[in-house]
Amino acid sequence: MLEQLTKRRTQYALGRNIGAGEEAIDEWIREAIRQSPTAFNSQGSRAIILFGEQSQAFWEIVRNELKEILPAEMLEQSLAKVDRFAAGVGTVLFFEDQRTVHDLQQQWAIFADHFPAWSEQSSGMAQLAVWATLANAGIGASLQHYNPLIDVKVQQMWDVPENWKLRAQMPFGSNEAPFNEKSFMPDEMRFRTYR
Ligand SMILES: Cc1cc2nc3c(=O)[nH]c(=O)nc-3n(C[C@H](O)[C@H](O)[C@H](O)COP(=O)(O)O)c2cc1C
């Protein structure tokens, strides 16, 4: 497991040179989310998995929304980043179902304050599971956050239920560049073990 987790890195240089087919990738992503833990096994994580032209359409929404808000001097760089995400094979949109959060709050009043945070934590676990699963299949990915800028357009385009809240976007594809060097802060600042 640790070896597998170590393979997961941020990859911005994406391409379409992957051996795996869309059906297999789709099922890996679904299974990674199914197997991820959720508070009270509430299974509030949702995903929309986009391949090919559907993924392209998603990144076109991002481009159009960025054009609306960014000043010219920032726009060029941001659009260049988006082009790299769009150059991949697909994109996973991660949502959390707010109805699930609400229902849990009704059902378990003493934990009511916790459920929004637990929903976010569950989403993070699902994101990591998908990212690591893709990495172990040799597929590169990164984690992006263009929400809430794009939420309305995404909702219209893919008929997303209103209670699904977009939390993250994960473009994926072939690894077209080595991963960046990663440094680690000293263990003494992060961990304590008592025995
Ligand atoms: C909660 C969270 C939010 C992140 N948001 C972004 C993001 O918006 N854009 C991005 O390029 N990377 C994002 N990342 C990825 C981190 O920048 C990246 O994981 C970190 O720099 C370590 O690099 P690695 O993924 O190669 O291990 C996010 C990661 C986490 C855990």
TrEMBL record:
Q: What keywords does the record list, in alphabetical order?
A: Cytoplasm, Oxidoreductase
Matching InterPro entries: Frm2/Hbn1, Nitroreductase, Nitroreductase-like
Q: Where in the cell is it found?
A: Cytoplasm
Ranges in coiled-coil conformation: none
Q: Tell me the ranges covered by the Nitroreductase domain, including all copies.
A: 7-173
According to the UniProt entry, its GO molecular function terms are: oxidoreductase activity
Give a GO biological-process term.
cellular response to oxidative stress
User: Could you confirm whether the keyword Oxidoreductase appears in this record?
Assistant: yes
Gene3D superfamilies in the cross-refs: NADH Oxidase
List the record's Gene Ontology CC terms alphabetically. Answer: cytoplasm
From which domain of life does this come? Bacteria
Which PANTHER family does UniProt cross-reference here?
Answer: FATTY ACID REPRESSION MUTANT PROTEIN 2-RELATED
Q: What is this protein called?
A: Nitroreductase family protein
